[in-house]
Structure prediction request, 693 residues.
Amino acid sequence: MADAGGAVPLLRVGGLKRYFDVSAPLLNRVLERQPRLTLRAVDGVDFAIGRGETFSIVGESGCGKSTVARLIVGLYRPTGGSIAFDGVDMARLRTRRELAQVRRRQQMIFQDPYASLNPRWRVRDIIAEPIRAFRLIDGNAAILERVGELLRHVGLAPADGEKYPHEFSGGQRQRISIARALASKPEFLVCDEPTSALDVSVQAQILNLMKDLQREFKLTYLFISHNLAVVYHISDKVAVMYLGRIAEVAPTRTLFSRPRHPYTRMLLDTIPDLDMTGRQRTPVAGEVPNPINPPSGCSFHPRCPFAADRCRAERPEPIPLADGALVACHGVEEGRLPEDVRPLKAVS
Amino acid sequence: MSAMDHPTVILPRETRPRANQPLLQVENLVVEFPTRRGVLRAIDDVSFHIDPGEVLGVVGESGAGKSLTGASIIGLLEPPGRIAGGRIFLDGSRIDDLPPEKLRRIRGKQIGAIFQDPLTSLNPLYSVGRQLVETITTHLDMNQAEARRRAIDLLAEVGIPAPERRIDHYPHQFSGGMRQRVVIALALCANPRLIIADEPTTALDVSIQAQIIALLKRLCRDHGTAVMLITHDMGVIAETADRVAVMYAGRIAEVGPVRQVIKHALHPYTVGLMGSIPSVGVDRARLAQIDGAMPRLNAIPEGCAFNPRCPKVFDRCRVERPDLIPQGPTAVSCWLYDRKEARRG
Prediction:
């Protein structure tokens, strides 16, 4: 497991914020005397990803995990905070050329392989686009050769390049997305729910492929998912997000065997029990509150069984713990939460 | 003999003796889609039963035919799809050949339905109360006031806070999880004996998913309602179902008690499927992988539909199609479990 502590991490995010203005149109605001409304999709997020590491963000819909992914690859501009890639602050890059040099090293894989491939382009043109856009290879023949090589890397045949996306199944399309992402020889891949739209047996194929490619090309992954079992399988480090903030970050085995934050504990309780141990799950009451008007203090306090007065008033900041976990919870800081140790099975 | 071994006896009459019979009996169901390039067979000779109060999970990957099986039972098969063969019995009476009006009476009264997306199963223009009351008065002999009282009770039962106030709200005023609760209340309106739940938790967040599963389980236990739970999520099946049928390419690959199928899967497809599911606490460098994909309907291979992907394939699988073979408490359609093969091997 790579550690982000010593050397310069590949990606460092500090105090990252992204607000969306969701107010009614000006005329309505004036006539109906409505205030401006701000949705704080990401509200101060810090983490670092070491080289060769797989860092996952989990959370329920609306927690801001996809917004973080989009901020990092530049699909949104941050409202505040900083993103440093390989020690270079992305906000400092002014010229197109400087930006392009960094962007070539970061690519993204999207959730829906039906929406993320242009249906009117041949697969070879889809995969060749990053090569052409970044002018990585000259000459059509050389580009096509490279496309064929990329198709082989993801388990397709070079001849598949002549086809259109609709001729492929969901899993094969996701392979095409991966081939396109690899075309610019990136070091860092942001994967936003890459297997959520796929069947389990196809999901297994894609997860295995991603692990193989990571080893072969020394890739670093930021993996966004709501599926805790997938996250456990693929990650070195996991961040749990709730309402635009990180509740807990820890190495994977630590997070799953010693969850600290009450929200993490609740999420782990929702994992269906495939082992049929007959363990009774206690579904947690309540739902994720409206992020436009989040609760005061710790935003999890209305659903938290350990909430105290301080939790309602004061927002907790992440506190580093001895085993490398980072937890934003007053209860954990004050040591008034019961230990929650969950044995993981022996490494097989 | 296990529960699965209800012999598919062909009786001359349309009704069957009432004693000891399953609530739902599906026999040799075939669903076809006529297309310009020939007839596509989406469900091919599927037989199963559901006992009163039982939860039968139907699991499979997209295109396996699980949702079509559910739609055939409630008579909501979209044309040009049609039932081309087989029979469906509810409580001993045949329901697959009823005229639409009669089927409409059964749907809602005896069979309730819950679909994946709660927003599409509710009418956005009517308050949830109006939709509940309409369903109740259609199927039960109640006046408006009684129906409204029952609607409020149902909303309370599915865990909606302040039901007296919420009953007059419109679907958009509910969150996703609360909407699915309303849909469950709607399915329960006429105290049906069977609920067809097609991916009821797929569109929901994990924490809400756990709440809805717990709710479904509690309601079915309290009311003695049987459920056909259609899902692609083995985890949901493990938590909820008594028995599970695994579907592949329009056929049942394996059916049996859920514990048995999950822990000791027999069919090579089920074995592969179980191995491909990542699981918390189990460290594996790689997941088991079934190479390839489920065949398209116009290219279902000869013999066993799984044979091109099967690690244990042998000659017979390529030519002859296996039917469900009883194997202890489960039944599996795989030639590996045929007695003749056992003798030969």
